[in-house]
Amino acid sequence: MSDSEPSAEFQETPPLSGGGAASCASGADVSKELILVADDLEFNRMLLRGVLEQDGYEVMEAENGVVANRLAKEAHPGLILLDVNMPGIDGYETCSVLRLGSETRNIPVIFITARTSTEDVVKGFKAGAVDYVGKPFQPEELLARVRTHLELRRAREEIQELRNLVPVCAWCRKIRNDEGGWETIEQYIQEHGGSKVSHGICPDCVSKISGKA
């Protein structure tokens, strides 16, 4: 069945068991993250919205790839659930365009579609998707995948922030370089740029402080 036909496979999707948020309580708190749902069928969008909102997520909708790209740039959602068969540019092309945009390339995209052949799945990953969910979907499985990729995205952002931190001695203001040595701020700035600063005490200053105590 085409994704653009009346979605009987969605109608067969069972409801969540045991409550939404409680079923995915482990890991980092990613509740209230904004999820963009892109599907040309309103019924499909409404069903996904219900599942996601029951688990605490905020949801915005796009009826085609053009709108999805625009909303992704404007709203910066935490994750995108993307249909394949849509009018105009399809899901594969939409995902490829998202990957080319500086504002959207890091937003994880999960395809959710009835097209689940190996060829379709491989094509989706080549377009830049992080995951691929077939219809009919199980709500618990979909929510688990959404949570996993939101947590991975958050972890990557935190790692990038840590990489940008620069260890600075709070006593003499020297900076520890990548080789573990300490150099003046002026020397470091000549070699690096655009980094944040963290504070600590280098070994030489620890000795000086201990000697004065």
Largest β sheet strand count, sense and barrel closure:
5 strands, parallel
Rg measurement, Å: 23 Å
Strand content: 15-25%
The span between the termini is 78 Å
Shape: elongated
Helical segment count: 8
Using the coordinates above, name the CATH class of the largest domain: Alpha Beta
Task: Give the beta-strand count.
Answer: 9
Q: From the structure provided, what is the oligomeric state, counting identical versus distinct chains?
A: single chain
Share in helix: 40-55%
The name of the CATH architecture of the largest domain is 3-Layer(aba) Sandwich
Structural class per helix/strand content?
alpha/beta
CATH superfamily of the largest domain: Response regulator
pLDDT under 50 segments (min length 5)? 4-15, 17-27
CATH topology of the largest domain: Rossmann fold
What is the residue-mean pLDDT, rounded to a whole number? 82
Order of helices and strands: HEHEHEHEHEHEEEHEH
How many domains would you count in the coordinates?
2
Instruction: Output the strand order for the largest sheet.
Output: 2-1-3-4-5
List the helices and strands and how they pair.
Layout: H1 8-11, E1 34-38, H2 42-54, E2 58-62, H3 65-75, E3 79-82, H4 91-100, E4 109-113, H5 118-127, E5 131-134, H6 139-163, E6 165-169, E7 175-176, E8 182-183, H7 185-191, E9 196-200, H8 203-212
Parallel strand pairs: 1-2, 1-3, 3-4, 4-5, 6-9
Antiparallel strand pairs: 7-8
Helix pairs in contact: 3-4
